[in-house]
Design brief:
Layout: E1 5-14, E2 17-26, E3 32-36, H1 47-55, E4 59-63, H2 82-96, E5 101-106, H3 108-119, E6 124-130, H4 138-154, H5 156-166, H6 176-184, H7 189-200, H8 208-212, E7 218-222, H9 231-240, E8 244-248, H10 254-257, H11 260-289
Parallel strand pairs: 3-4, 3-5, 5-6, 6-7, 7-8
Antiparallel strand pairs: 1-2, 2-4
Helix pairs in contact: 2-3, 4-5, 4-7
Length: 290
Amino acid sequence: MLVSERIGQFFLTGEGSRDRLEYTEYGAGDAWVVLVHGQLMPRRMHQPLARALAAEGLHVVTVDLLGHGRSDRPADPLRYSMTAFGEQVIALLDHLGAEQAVVGGTSLGANVSLEVAVLAPERVRGLLVEMPVLDNAVEAGILAFAPLLFAARFMPFTVAGVRAVTRPVPRGLVPFWTGIVLDTLDQRADAMAAVVHGLFFGRVAPSSAQRRGITAPALVVGHPADPIHPAADAAMLAGELPHARFVQARSILEWRLRPERLTRAAVGFAQECWGEQRRASRRERSSTAQ
């Protein structure tokens, strides 16, 4: 089933700043789903899932958070935090006129979704969380991202060199996930350092007590053999959230290379979250037609 796709933008205004954020809409209607990318990755990583959800009648939006993808990339570390990212998603909902949405994402996007649920619980219809980064991932996260921060701060020519090599590659000529990797490598050293610094020295996620207070239904997806996103964190989160179910992926690559099983689970979950409202909408359309 073909669905409409539209690119949009909105602006965040603050003290002496005005930042542009870009997003893509898939489908239409009032059953909103917002998907958030992983750290340093573009929103396009969620294109396959967004299309699958929209084909089932959901109105899906993927967004590039500040410092990512095609959105603005200021070089000030103070502009980046999980809380700030959560506020950006809420600002997106305001811009779209969406009272509620199923909010979800991968890795960074998973943690941002939790922030949204804490900041504005009334706006969250459900949570679709893959690979949350919580207590069990601290050491691996330091090992993974400290070298990136060091390279961007003290050897910016390495980041510029990678960008110079990868940016000219036509994305349409390479496999989809190869293109996502190339887009992720398309970084500017100053902005990349600011993003990593801001997240590195800020809080990773809402506290356990705050997570236990999230009442929205949740689908939590974890997978084994990934130290940065350990399955223990996903299982722990599923145990903390009062209305969560846990799905274990076979590997970190399953949703990338063989997505059918997990996509079915995500579609079913989002439809459940919006089921009552969608049935009411269908009844209203039917009565109008008569």
